[in-house]
Structures are given as structure tokens and as C-alpha cells.
Amino acid sequence: xxxxxxxxxxxxxxxxxxxxxxxxxxxxxxxxxxxxxxxxxxxxxxxxxxxxxxxx
Length: 56
Prior knowledge:
Blueprint: H1 6-30, H2 34-55
């Protein structure tokens, strides 16, 4: 097994930090518009599904 050097560890840590920053940025950008759209869509479809099952 090869050992990790300091340079490789720094690259891995920076890569993880960049990935986390991108995910947090996308979440904060889309949280108001896209997530509300999908929550409303899923909520309406789920209620229609349950009402359809109950009505037989």
C-alpha cells in the first residue's frame, strides 16, 4: 500500500471542501423555488392517491 503524502492529503481535503461548498451553494440557490415546487407537486399527488384509494 502506498502512503499518502502531505500534498495528497491537502488535495483530498480541498476537494472535499469544494464539493461541500458547491452542494451548499446549490441548496441555497434552489431552496426557495425548486423545492417548494416539488413539495407542492408531491403533496397534491399523494393526497389524490390516498383519496382515490379510500373512495375505491
